[in-house]
Amino acid sequence: MPFGEQPAYLRVAGDLRQKIVDGALPPHTRLPSQARIREQYGVSDTVALEARKVLMAEGLVEGRSGSGTYVRERGTLRGIVRSGYRSADDRTPFRQEQADERVKGTWESHSEQEDATAETAARLGIEPGDRVMRTRYLYRTEGEPMMLTTSWEPLALTGRTPVMLPEEGPLAGCGVVERMAAIDVIVDNVQEEVGARPGLAEETLALGGVPGRAVLAVSRTFYASGRPVETADVVVPADRFTFSYHLPVR
Fold it and tell me: What keywords appear on the UniProt entry (predicted)?
């Protein structure tokens, strides 16, 4: 569609976006008010409001309660390296996330038993309501929340074993492959699906963002001879990080 045929709110949003990119509206600058946009571009209040909504949805601006809308700081995207399986002797600080060992940080984790939801049950090949161990992790680098992970393991497999709690016991933090091997379950495959979506309120709160802001989400499942033994959701802020996959060629 030629530029002149774009809806008015997209033309206004595009011009404001360019000013942000060019530095005419630097970070922490207050965005022109709705009335100012209306006057400057000769558009209606509705068009001005929709243009502001576009910039907010793109993560270029953010609202501050009782103050207005401001241009966001645009940080440099940092990569999270995800590689193939590594042995226990080559364990990384990301543990079962298999990420960049050069990055140092801290983990917070909490495990508790719960009934499997229909979605979790489908991913683990069990029945809804079957008991699972849910573990939630928050990873920080230099105090900054970086990655939120929630994993589920069927207690029919790990219950009453030394690896029932992923972060406690003799194999605490060793990752799924080593822990399952300790109970004679040989993990031989892992599947990951990567996508982007609006962050849930509890996710973005934990990661230091605004509800609805885009996140990168990895749905991961480990298998042993075709049987799912662990499934997890890995979430990172899409405006601060990218995923980089380093996989061995066999």
Answer: DNA-binding, Transcription, Transcription regulation
